[in-house]
Amino acid sequence: MELIADIPRLYTGLAEWAGCLIMLLICRRKARGAAFIAISAAAVFLQCGLLTATADVDAGALWIVIMLLAVSFMFLFIFLCADIPLLGAVYCTAAAFLFAEFAASLEWQLHAWASRTVPLGEAASAILLAVIYTGVFAAFYFSFRHHMTEDYLESLTYKEVISVVLITLLTFVFSNLSFVLTGSPFSGRVAEDIFAIRTLADGIGIAVLLGFQSRISELLAQKELYSMRHVLDSQYEQFRNYQESEEMLHMMQHDIKHQIKGLRGETSPEKREAWLDMMENELDKWWLPQRTGNPVFDTILSAALRKARQLDVRITCVADGALLSRMHVADICTIFGNAIDNAMESVVMIPEPEKRLIHVSVSAQKGFIFINISNTLGTDLIESPDGLVTTKKDKKKHGYGLKGIRYAVGKYNGNVSYKAEDGWFRLNILIPM
Fold it and tell me: How far is 387 from 395, CA to CA, in rounded Å?
C-alpha cells in the first residue's frame, strides 16, 4: 500500500487543470488573449498548489473537503473563461474531472508497472506523464468536440446536468473505494489491484458519460429536425396560399372587364368616379410586380410587396428569376420566404417608415447564382448559440429560418454568409450554376 501514498498530487492537479483547458478549447470563450493566459496561469497555480500543499491528508472528512475545493477551482476556471450558461459550466466541470481522474490513474498505473522493471528518473517520469496525458486529453478533445456545441450546452436541463454529476460522483466513489473500505467485495488488497480497479472504474464512467451525451445529442438533433421541418412546411403552405391569392387576382382581372363594361354605361360622373376609385384601390391592393422569369419567386415577391405596403416598408428588387429554374419549389420558398420574412421583422422595428428598406437581388456572377437580401437595421443583432444572428431576445427558440436557408442552399453545394455594416444587414448566398 506504500505506492498509493506516493502518487504525486501535482500530477492530479495538472490533470484537473488540463481537463478544464480541453473544455475551454471546445467551448466558445469569453476570456481571450492576455486575459485567458493570466486566468489559466492562476488556475494551474491554485489547482496544483492546493493539492500539493495537502498531499499528507489521507482519506477522511478533510480529504473530501479538499476534493470539493479542487472541483470548485475547476468550475471557477471554466465559468470565468467559457461563454456558456451556469448549467453548462457544471456539466463541463463534471466531465473534465472524470477525465482528469482517469488520466491520473492510468498514468500512475503505467508508471508503477514500468518502474518495477526499469528505474525511472525524473526526466523519464516527466516524459511518461506528458505522453499519457497528451494521449488521454487528445482523446478527450476529439470525443467531445462534436457533441459539446453551444446549442448542446444551451439546451441542457437540470435533470441532464444532475445525471452527469451523479455519473461522475458514483464513478469517483467506486474508483476510490479501495482507499476507504479495504475489506469490501469491490476493493483491492494490493497496489496493482487498487489501481486496476480505479482505472477501470474511471474508464467505465467515461464510457457511460459518452453514451449519455450521444443520446442527448440525438434527441436535440431530432428536436431541431422537427422544428426545421415545421419551418419548411410552413413556408410551403405559405406559398400555396400565395398561389391561391394569384388565382384570386386573375378572377378579379376577369371581373374588372365586366366592371369596365358597366362603367361605359354609367351616366353619373360622381358614381363613375367613385367606381373608378374603388377599382384603383383594389388594383393597388393586389398589384403584382414586374415578372422576373420564375413564377414561384414572383408569387413570393408579390405577397411580400403586399405585406410591405401594409407595414410601410419599401422593397426594391432586381432579379433574374430564370436563374432559379433548376431549384425545387420548396427550396425557393424556404430561401426567399425565410429571408424576406426575417428582413421584414427587422425593419418594422425602425420607428421611421422612410428608413424601412429591403433590397432583393438575384444575378449571375462568375459561374455562381448570387442572391442578396439586405435590410436596414434599427436594433442590435444578438448572436445565438450556434453563431446565427437574430434581433429577438429568446435566442434558443429562433434562428431556424436561417438554418432552413442553409439547409436548402446546401442541397446545391452553395454557401450562406451574412454581415452587418453601415446600418445594413446583408444576407449573401452563392450557388454554383
Answer: 10
175 contacts 56 by C-beta, under 8 angstroms:
no
What is the DSSP track for 365-421? Answer: ETTEEEEEEEEE--S--EE-TTS-EESSS-SSS--HHHHHHHHHHHTTT-EEEEEEE
Predicted TM-score (pTM) of this structure: 0.57
What 8-state DSSP symbol labels residue 326?
T
Is 20 within the bounds of a domain? yes
pLDDT tens column, 403-431: 778 888 888 888 999 888 888 999 999 99
Indicate which CATH number applies to the domain containing 388.
Answer: 3.30.565.10
Q: What is the DSSP letter of 28?
A: P
Same domain, 295 and 195: no
Domain that holds residue 90: 2-227
Tell me the C-alpha distance between 411 and 278, whole Å: 46
pLDDT tens for 55-103 read: 777 666 787 888 889 999 999 999 999 888 888 899 999 999 999 989 8
Distance of CA 301 to the CA centre of its chain: 31
Kind of pairing between the strands at 357-365 and 314-319: parallel
Relative orientation angle of helices 9-26 and 33-53, to the nearest 10 degrees: 150
Split into its structural domains, the chain has a count of 2
Highest mean pLDDT among 87-91, 179-183, 275-279: 87-91
276 alpha-carbon distance from chain centroid: 55
Same domain, 126 and 199: yes
Instruction: Read off the pLDDT of residues 369-410 as tens digits, 9 standing for 90 and up.
Output: 999 999 998 765 544 444 445 544 444 444 557 877 888 888
In 176-190, alpha helices (H): 177-180
- Scanning 145-190, the segments in alpha helix (DSSP H) are 150-155, 158-175, 177-180
Residues near 26 by Cβ (< 8 Å), separated by ≥ 6?
A: 141, 144, 145, 148
Q: Residue for cell digits 420558398?
A: 333
Q: What confidence tens digit (pLDDT) does each residue in 320-359 have?
A: 888 988 888 878 888 888 888 889 988 999 988 888 999 9
| Distance of alpha carbon 407 from alpha carbon 224, whole angstroms | 12
